[in-house]
Amino acid sequence: MRSLLTSRRLAAVALFSAFVCAGEMAANVEVRAADREVLRPVDKGWLGRIEDQLNTVETLKAHFRQIAPDGKETTGTLWLSRPGRMRFEYDSPSPLLLVANDGKFVFQDRQLDQTTEIPLERTPLGLLLGAHVAFSGNVSVTSFDHKDGDILVTAVRTASPGDGSLTLRFSEKPLALMSWTVVDAQGHRTEVVLSDIQYGVRMPDSLFKLPQGD
């Protein structure tokens, strides 16, 4: 039973829960100036445009393909409603469901009837779900790369970089979020690639009802 649970969670919880496992020491470490990316004026201009683009997004629906740290792929549908709400529903036969609301992420394995709660503020995707997205202050950019029509921005929480990093990949024309990669405190990488992206979709509140355990 434990090996089955571990295998399933590797595909989904790597996105969120591993960021809680950095430990007491990581929570008290700040990003050093040497660890921050030295941005050129043109890079800062692109970051400003990216912030503006993300802050215009109120709702988003997309299909996703997730590549887990062990290379296994799963697919499903993502709903995002800013601020603070997100739903990952995995395609059958996966029993996994992830919902963000009320300041927390809740992971549910419906087959094993188990749920796990994670504070939203300790997850990398919490950076995307805030009322205002900004790559400054509480967030530090540690890498910026712009080439071949793609823009890659890697960011960490300034006060707790040991929690892991989030790398966002944007297309340049049009400027749009295409994927993200999470690297957790143990170095495990999980990538989520978006397709069939729809903006401004009306979403019922019921989509973001948090799963309840027994």
Explain what you see:
17% of the residues lie in helices and 41% in strands. The chain is an alpha+beta fold. The chain has a single domain (2-203), classed as Clam (outer membrane lipoprotein receptor (LolB), chain A). The chain has an 11-stranded antiparallel β-sheet with strand order 6-5-4-3-2-1-11-10-9-8-7, with helices on one face. The chain is globular and about 50 Å long. 31% of the residues are buried. Mean pLDDT is 81; it is low at 1-6 and 16-35.
Give a quick set of tags describing it.
214 residues, alpha+beta, outer membrane lipoprotein receptor (LolB), chain A, 11-stranded antiparallel sheet, 17% helix, globular, disordered N terminus
Number of strands: 11
Helix segment count?
A: 4
Q: Uncertain spans, ≥5 residues at pLDDT below 50? A: 1-6, 16-35
Q: H/E order of the elements?
A: HHHEEEEEEHEEEEE
Mean pLDDT equals 81
Percentage of helical residues? 10-25%
Radius of gyration: 17 Å
CATH topology (fold) name: outer membrane lipoprotein receptor (LolB), chain A
State the strand order across the main sheet.
Answer: 6-5-4-3-2-1-11-10-9-8-7
Explain briefly what this protein structure is.
The protein has helices spanning 2-12, 23-27, 41-56, 126-129, and strands at 59-67, 73-81, 85-90, 96-101, 104-109, 114-119, 139-147, 150-157, 164-171, 176-184, 189-199.
Layout of helices and strands:
Blueprint: H1 2-12, H2 23-27, H3 41-56, E1 59-67, E2 73-81, E3 85-90, E4 96-101, E5 104-109, E6 114-119, H4 126-129, E7 139-147, E8 150-157, E9 164-171, E10 176-184, E11 189-199
Antiparallel strand pairs: 1-2, 1-11, 2-3, 3-4, 4-5, 5-6, 7-8, 8-9, 9-10, 10-11
